[in-house]
Design a protein that fits this description.
The complex is a heterodimer of chains A (94) and B (506).
Chain A (H helix, E strand, L loop, with lengths): L2 E7 L4 H18 L3 E7 L4 H6 L7 E6 L4 E4 L5 H8 L9
Parallel strand pairs in A: 1-2
Antiparallel strand pairs in A: 1-3, 3-4
Chain B lengths: L9 E2 L6 H4 L4 E2 L3 E6 L5 H16 L2 E6 L4 H9 L5 H6 L3 E5 L8 E3 L6 H14 L1 E7 L1 H5 L5 H17 L3 E7 L13 H4 L2 E10 L2 E11 L8 E7 L3 E4 L15 E2 L4 H6 L4 E2 L3 E6 L5 H14 L4 E5 L4 H10 L4 H6 L3 E5 L7 H15 L3 E5 L1 H5 L4 H17 L3 E7 L9 H6 L5 E10 L2 E11 L9 E6 L2 E7 L3 E2 L7 E2 L2 H15 L1
Parallel strand pairs in B: 3-8, 3-9, 4-5, 4-7, 7-8, 15-19, 15-20, 16-17, 16-18, 18-19
Antiparallel strand pairs in B: 1-2, 9-10, 10-11, 11-12, 13-14, 20-21, 21-22, 22-23, 24-25
Helix pairs in contact in B: 13-15
The chains are: A alpha+beta (94), B alpha/beta (506).
């Protein structure tokens, strides 16, 4: 099962940097290569943000696998993020 | 007109009546908070502000919606003649849709801000070169975001951003109750340099909409509450009563009342742009006088418009025919239009809007309302007075002659609320009164007042026959007619008796 994730950020803001850090950590340690991560800056892609109805940053969207889920915030609460993404914590986390 | 004061510049909204009460529109380049309960018309106000900017002033507009989805907004205003889709294609209008996605669950994991929303708003503003932005409404965002502090902080940031971009903006805020705190968010502390309140109050079983400019920081505006209506064709229409300037020109041209003898009593007829109030009990001949007034117009080749609130079209035609006036032909010739409506069908604001519209469309030289008191029945005193002011000012501004009738409640003498309430607004008052003399009912007419003209001050007798109203001589030796208790004056005899004694002395 491959995860398709999109993280919407606003430039280099603190929240954005924190979120990027966390999601990269999750991808590396929990998803282990079974993922596709796209980081989109709303300042550079406002039309795309409009289309996707993104209003808060950072916003993390799990496009696949279904169902789609939306998490807003700097992802500092990793447990909550994993729960929101319906990811079982990896073996080594146990 | 050069303005020498340092007051803030305004941006005309294009909302009917609002630019009058706000003395020129919303403070330019600022954010105005529009506060109101659900269903008060906040969204309509916002959309009209944008649509007005596009259609009347060629200024692009952006609508940021937190509540209604994009398609609903487009659909809702289509009936008002605004094609938002076309405006979008023409790059004049853009919607930033921040309405909740049905069924979507948001997980909050940590801190965030609304930079994405701000980026979208800025993007939309640039795209259509917007001068106007509406955010509708903050309250709805609360349902999506649990932290109201965050909403407050972010809205402040957005307001600052909007100011920086030089746009004039409206933020609508939902209010829980008509009387109470302005909003549950306390956003006003941050963005409320300018506050407009929209109300929708139940007043003696009638919904009454009104709008008030609470404050404009550093800019002038009219104070107080103004009634408005939401018209299916034109949207919000505010009736700018007390801001109506008494600037109407005054005409010295006289026109015939349709009754030659009455013209004589009025020293040559009524003025071209004056309002006459005819007051009398039922059956004194008010509708007859209205008919003659209209006949006067028709004979002079002028267009006349009658608003009838008591009788049907058929009845009016038949009555007129019985006095030898052919309304049917006049209507066919395009000289007369008779509009019949039950007073109860609409609120007074709506009546006023419809009357105004009929006048605009028909462009009559004379307007008659039979009767004004029928409308009084369906409203509060304040609303009625406002209605009459709105109506008379409109009629006078068009230099049209107005003829209103008023039915008094008592058969003999006395006065009615209408008289006391609106007599100062009308230019001339004619009273029709029953006079009981020697066990017989007769009728008397008097021109009580006529602004700017001499007039006959005597009470004249009149009879109604198949030719209409025939005014005869004065009531001799009778006093107390207006008071309702006519007294036959024996003065003549007293004098004679007095003379007798006087002659006896010498």
């Amino acid at each position: 099962m491959k995860y398709e994730l999109r993280l919407w950020v606003a430039g280099q803001s603190m929240f954005s940097r924190q979120a990027i850090e966390t999601i990269k950590d999750i991808c590396k340690n929990e998803l282990k290569g079974k993922y596709k991560l796209e980081i989109i800056d709303v300042h550079e892609n406002p039309d795309l943000a409009e289309e996707n109805k993104i209003f808060a940053t950072p916003t993390l969207i799990k496009e696949l696998p279904a169902p789609l889920s939306k998490i807003i915030g700097n992802l500092k609460n990793k447990e909550k993020v994993l729960l929101g993404l319906e990811i079982q914590p990896a073996e080594d986390a146990k | 007109m050069a303005k020498t004061n340092k007051l803030l510049e305004k941006l005309e909204t294009g909302i009917s009546g609002f630019d009058e009460i706000s003395i020129g529109g919303l403070p330019k380049g600022r954010t105005t908070m529009v506060v109101g309960t659900a269903g008060s018309g906040k969204t309509m106000f916002g959309i009209q502000f944008l649509a007005g900017g596009i259609t009347k002033y060629g200024q692009g507009g952006v609508m940021v919606t937190f509540e209604e989805p994009r398609d609903d907004i487009i659909r809702n205003v289509r009936s008002l003649g605004w094609d938002l889709e076309q405006m979008t294609k023409d790059k004049k209008f853009a919607i930033v849709d921040a309405s909740p996605v049905p069924g979507e669950e948001l997980v909050e994991a940590g801190d965030y801000d609304l930079s994405a929303l701000l980026a979208r708003i800025e993007n939309a503003i640039k795209k259509v070169n917007a001068k106007r932005v509406v955010l509708d409404s903050i309250g709805a965002l609360i349902h999506q975001i649990s932290d109201s502090n965050l909403v407050r902080r972010e809205f402040h940031r957005i307001a600052v951003g909007l100011k920086k971009m030089g746009v004039t903006s409206i933020i609508t805020v939902e209010r829980m109750e008509e009387h109470g705190a302005l909003s549950r968010l306390g956003v006003e502390e941050f963005v409320a340099d300018n506050v407009v309140i929209i109300r929708n109050i139940l007043d003696t079983e009638k919904r009454r909409r009104s709008i008030e400019i609470l404050k404009f920081r550093g800019a002038e505006h009219h104070k107080g509450d103004y009634p408005f209506t939401i018209d299916p064709e034109e949207g919000i229409m505010i009736i700018p009563l007390s801001s109506i300037a008494l600037t109407q020109r005054s005409s010295s041209t006289r026109i015939s009342s349709g009754n030659p003898e009455l013209d004589k009593m009025m020293h040559g007829g009524m003025f071209r742009d004056s309002i006459v109030l005819v007051s009398g009990a039922t059956g004194t001949g008010k509708t007859l006088m209205t008919t003659e007034f209209l006949k006067g117009a028709i004979e002079a080749g002028e267009k006349a418009l009658l608003f009838a609130f008591e009788e049907s079209h058929q009845q009016l035609l038949r009555n007129a025919a019985s006095w030898g006036v052919d309304f049917a032909k006049a209507e066919k010739d395009g000289l007369l239009k008779v509009v019949c409506r039950y007073p109860e069908t609409l609120g007074l604001e709506d009546h006023l809007i419809y009357i105004r519209r009929e006048i605009e469309n028909f462009q009559p030289g004379r307007v008659a309302v039979d009767s004004l008191s029928a409308l009084e029945r369906v409203s509060t005193r304040k609303a009625f007075r406002e209605f009459v002011i709105g109506l008379t000012s409109h009629i006078k501004a068009k230099e049209t002659a107005g003829f209103f009738t008023n039915t008094t409640s008592m058969l003999m003498g006395s006065e009615s609320i209408t008289e006391t309430h609106i007599s100062t607004i009308t230019d001339s008052i004619i009273m029709l009164r029953y006079v009981e003399l020697f066990g017989e009912i007769r009728r008397g007419i008097v021109v009580l007042k006529m602004r700017g003209s001499f007039h006959d001050k005597t009470i004249r007798e009149y009879v109604i026959d198949e030719t209409g109203m025939r005014i005869k001589g004065t009531f001799r030796n009778v006093s107390g007619i207006l008071g309702g208790v006519p007294v036959y004056d024996m003065g003549g005899e007293r004098e004679r008796v007095g003379d007798m004694f006087a002659s006896g002395k010498t």
